[in-house]
Amino acid sequence: MLDVDIEKFWEDDALAHEDNCFSPKAPQVALGIRMSEECVFAELGEEGNPWGYTPVERRIELNKRYNEKALKIVGRKLLPEEFPPPDSVFPPIRRIGEVFEGKYVHNGVAEWLEGSCKTPRELEAMLDRVEKLDLREFILPPNWEAEKKRIYETYGKKPDIVRHVRGPVTLAMSIYGTENLIFLILDEPDLARRFSQVISDVIFKIASIMDEEAGYNSENKPGGFRFADDNCCLLTPEMYELFGYPILKRIFDHWCPNPEDNRYQHSDSDMAHLLPILGRLKLTGCNFGPTVLVDEIRKYMPRTRIDGCLAPFTFMSNDEKKIIEEVKRDCEMARECRGLNLSTAGSINNGSLLTSMRAVMYAIQNFGRY
């Protein structure tokens, strides 16, 4: 294995995360990689569906074995070994795709959101129905009040708030179609604006409802909001300005008014052409695709923590030489500006090994010193 001073690495890493990874006292670039539960199967040589259901007992057993190996290779346990009792988990609320009459389906490999309309007239009719919905009644299950009372009395737990949603462009393209949305913005911009406004209203209402369910009001609600919007890269800047930007601006203004509030965008795609627009949102964190590098992001986001820019397929290839090359590149770009949280520019997938994480640690320790 590559030679890493494990104890010193983790001491330095703790300092590296201070001040949103911008601390002048940070001795090295921060490490954002903590692997994922998907990775247990390839690492341990076990059968299983990384994106499917794994029984809790089996999950705990796999995670414990994985953590034993992780301690030896990277010096830390990375995955949870305890899970909440099943009867302490709130019944699921309906998701935003269902509000827009889409269906979440599992194809045996992963879950997808299937659309609900294909033509402008079908879209108009669907938006009419969404606007008339009693959203609280629609998203909360029939047993919600009883379960909320029981769980609170038994475990002292309140419902989770909503601070992360599928991004507006990805949602719209799932519901209406990729090419359909592009042509809609070009051919019927007024209807496109209405679609955007309804998405904005639904996100706002769902988050507000769950704030209330958790016992918060407009004065004491927790700050922060995150969007995952891979498909927004398919829009031109002018299209995104019309459709996506107003939604993020409204939500961030309401839930993230303070400089320290988390304003986050995940779009693991080629986002360079949208950086000038996203830069106006004063994001505190971002995760873009592997072609959007530190030096380009910094032109528009001088104080945004960059979670990247290691290509996920480089990481999953387990080619230590290539991993070290990319990490060295990113560390050199971040040396003057800081604010880099060395992560994959996208998801960490099954097949990514712990030795690859150690290779990243090696590269940071050798090439990522400030």
Keywords:
alpha/beta; seven-stranded parallel beta sheet; 18 helices; 48% helix; globular; UROD/MetE-like_sf; Uroporphyrinogen_deCOase; Uroporphyrinogen decarboxylase (URO-D) domain-containing protein; Methanogen_methyltrans; uroporphyrinogen decarboxylase activity
Strand order of the largest sheet: 1-9-8-7-6-5-4
Helix/strand order, N-terminal first:
HHEHHHEEHHHEHHHEHHEHEHEHHEH
Portion of residues in beta strands equals 5-15%
Poorly predicted tracts of residues: none
Total helical elements: 18
Mean pLDDT: 96
Number of strands: 9
- Give the CA-CA distance, first to last residue: 25 Å
| Backbone shape | globular
Task: Determine the fraction of residues in helical runs and give it as a percent range.
Answer: 40-55%
User: What is the alpha-carbon Rg in Å?
Assistant: 22 Å
What does this structure look like?
- This protein has 370 residues and is an alpha/beta fold.
- The chain has a domain at 1-73 and 262-370.
- The chain is 48% helix and 10% strand.
- It has 18 helices and nine strands.
- The strands form two sheets. It has a seven-stranded parallel beta sheet. Strands 2-3 form a two-stranded antiparallel sheet.
- A hairpin with a 4-residue loop joins strand 2 and strand 3 (111-114).
- Helix 11 (189-213) runs parallel beside helix 13 and helix 17 packs parallel to helix 18 (354-367).
- It is globular, with a radius of gyration of 22 Å.
